Structure formats: structure tokens, C-alpha cells
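User: I'll paste a sequence; please echo it back and then give the predicted structure.

Assistant: Echoing your sequence first, then the prediction.
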Amino acid sequence: MPQTTARLIGQMFWRQRRDTTLCAAFWSLHQVCEALVPVAIGLVIDQAVGTGSTSAMAWSVLGIFALFTALTMGWRSGFWFLSKAVVEESHVLRMRVVRRVVTGRGIRTERQSGELLSIATSDTQSAAELLELGTRGVSALVGLSVSTIVLLRIDWSLGLGLVVGVPILVLGLNALGPVVGRHTSAQQQAIGRAAATASDLLRGLRPLRGFGGVDEAARRYRTASRTSLRASIGTAKAGATFVGASTFTTGLLITVVAALAGWFALQGRITVGQLITIVGLATFIADPVLNLADCVFRLATARASAARVAEVLAAPEQAPSGRRTAAAGTLALDEVHAPGLAGVGLTVPPGELLGVVTGETVTADAITELLAGARLPERGEVRLAGTPLPELDVASLRRVVLVEPHGVDLFGATLREALRTGADGDDSALSASMAAASVDDLLAEGDAGLDRHLTDHGLNLSGGQRQRLALARALLADRPVTVFRDPTTAVDAVTEHAIADGIRAYRAGGGRATVLVTTSAPLLDQCDRVVFVQAGRVAAVGRHRELLAQPGYAEVVLR
């Protein structure tokens, strides 16, 4: 088991040490009382029934009543503490995974969004169940220890047989654990891939319909789903084999113990009461042994889930986060080297509307990610108000710099919910941002206005409407520095000109800086300054109409 997984499991038990300790104590009490039930019955037969003593019978009844009361309350109390620990720990793990994925500067992982969703939900719950397995294992061992001591006191050969037989049985069952673990891990990965495929299919359903790719997408999902089904069947078979083996071997152990006890009773080696005690203990032994067997079986599943959770939590950040609080000021790239960039330098002072033009996608990606602080340059620095971005706290940086990516993600069941990302103003502010983004036509369709219903990710809107709604959301956030990446690729020419005017008017005043990473001529025409990056270097700087005289710039912008 990797060290990161072991550390995660250790942290789980340490955080829930109080509740798990209390659960183990109460469940151990339950197991002890349950093991003493056949002992008590044997004593009643020998000391009360055999002697005919009325007082002994009365005390026996009271003792058995107290024993069953302690047995019942021990189980209930332990279950309460365990449930509390598992619920709290699954929530802690879920929040840690979600924070790791959606906050900060992001993580480097090859897992798709559907797999990450599966880890954040089902795997965190399964990993938290390790708390149950630990407490059940402890209480089962306590029950077996008490049973062994009682049998040793009655007849040393029976106790010794139990001492030898139970460890062999548990070790044999433990050998099947890795087999179950491999099947379970394969099942979890297959389910995650199927979820990721389904998520991609739903998100891209509209364009898939447009170019006739629905059948191919459905075929790929069927393939992923069938792979998941085969993995689930393999896990079920491995689990059935494990349960069958554990049930058979436990039954065999009980049969051998009961048969030997009967033989000893016939020989007069033990009394009738002791025979009943031994048979009762042999039957009781099935409970802790099967508990241990079930713990071994579920341990493989829970440990595989814990490993997946630990993998996400240990995934390296795309860029480090510092401790200094970000402040509004000039955003600058100083001789930055990165994929697609070979010593690029540019500044975005407060109040400027800056355009950045490049014909290479890798260059546009690098500039966008560098300005967002989501990537470290290979050489050079990215600074905000004179402070390198890696030294800034991510949360405070997000309050100063907003980078709206080209890919659109909408959240919320209504227009109002999709626009608001916090305390973003009243309805008039929402309407103003929609007007600036030329998406206010949505308010005119029907009588719902800002309460217009949206399906998941706004899929009941056109691509252009979704893009403009995301633009309105970014404008409404009103950060000191806002960066837009190709915000008008899904709109017509008339709307594009209107959006260009709207962005200019909305962001004017207040010292707010705006960066447009785009090749859109209407947007660039509104910019105070345009930086043209070609072959990884700044090729030209000026106003849009001036730069049109350069063939390289004109080819990129007017194509």
C-alpha cells in the first residue's frame, strides 16, 4: 500500500479517534457479553437446574437479563458512535477532494471529470468505512479471545484447537483479499470512465447532433458501459467466492468443535452444562470469524477507494500558492518563456483595454494560463502590482484577477443563478451585464425574465447564448483585472460588434483593466492597445487599424 494511502488512513483514524475508540469499546462489550451467554446458560444448568435451587434460579434469571441488556446496549451505543464517525469522515474527505479539484491553481491529473466526481462521492464514502472495519475487527478479536479463554478453562485441547484453527482460517481468507481488491479496483476505474464518457456525451450533445456524431458517441458509451458491467460481474464473482469460502470453513470449524465436545461429554470428560457451553461458543464463534472475514473482503474495496482518494489529494499543483494578499495593480509578463512563448513581455496597467493576438492555440493557452496563475513560466516572471503570482494567495488573487476561459460552464437552474457567483448585485445589475454581453434577448423570450429555467449546464440554450451568458457573468463579477479568451466565437458579426461596444462601455472607468486574447476584429478595434505575438515573440504593438498594415497581423485577424 503506498505511503500516501497509509498516511490518509492514519489521519482518518486520528481525526475520529474518540468515536472509533468508544465504538470499539462498546462493540467489544457486546462481543464479550455474547460470548458469555452460553457460559451463563451452562452455569444455570449445572448450578440451578441440576441442583434444583430456587434462589440460584432467580439469580440466574437476573444475571441473564443483565447480560442481554448489556449486550443490546453495547451494540446500539457502538453503532451510534460509529455512524457519527463515518458520516463526519466521509464529509471531511469529500470536502478535501472537492477543494483540491476546484480551488487553488488546479492539479495535474490524468483522470477525467467523471472519474473525479466518482472519487469525490462514492470513493470517499467507501474509504470512510475503514473506520467501521477497524472497530469491527477489534471487537471480533476480543470476542474470539474471550471464547478461547473459556474453552481453555473447560478443556485445553478444545481451546488450543481454536487458537490454532482461527488464525489459519483468517490468514487463508486474507489470501483471497488481493484477488477481490484487483477486481474492485478495476470495477471502480471502469465505472469512473463510464461516468466520464456519459458526462462528455451530455455536454457535447448539441454539436454531436449537428454533425451527426450521436451514433458514434452512443457506441463509445456502450463500450465503456459494457466494460464497467464486466468489471462489476467479476467483482461479484470474486465476492461470492470469498463469502462461500468463509461460510464453508467457518461451518467446518464449528462442526469439528461441537463434535469433539460431544465426544468428550460421552466420555464424562466434561459436564452437560459444559457441553452446552461449548456448543453455544462454537456457534458464537461463527459471528466474530465471519466478521473478520467480511472485514477482509470489504477491506480490499475500502483500501482501493482510499488509494484513489489519496491519489487526488497528493496530486501536484499546476502552480504553487503563496501567502501574500493580492492587490490591484499592473499585471505584467516579464520575458516569459513557456510552451509557445519565447521571451514575451507585456504589461496591463489599470484602466487599459488590451488586446492580445496570436494565430497559435498553444500560445493563446499559455498566455491565458499564465495570467490566471495556473501555470508557472519556464523562465521569466508574471507579476501583479510588482509581486510574482506564485507568492500570492490564490483566493485573494481570484478576487483581483478573473480569467474567463473559452470553454463555457454554466451552473444554476435559472438565469439569475447562472449569473450570480456571490454578492453580485441586484436584478438591475444583472440586466445591465446581460445588455453589455448582448444576451438580454433571453429576458424578452417569455414572461419568466431572470427566473427563466435552464437545464443542466444551460443545454437548452444555443452555443452563442451560452457564450454570451458566460461573458455577462464575468462582467458582473467586476474584477479589477478581467481576461477574456475568444469570447465571441459563437456569435454573428452584428452581435459581435454590439458585444465589443458593450465590453468597452461596461469596463470603462474605475481603473479596471481588461485583456482580450482574441483574433476578433470588432473586439480588437475597441482596444486601447494591441500586442501581436508571432512565433513566440512580440512582433508588433499598436492600435488595431495601424497593425492591419502588417501582412502577418492582417492574415491572422482577417482570415
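The chain is about 65% helix and 10% strand. The beta strands are 331-338, 341-348, 353-357, 379-384, 387-388, 401-404, 481-485, 513-517, 529-534, 537-542.
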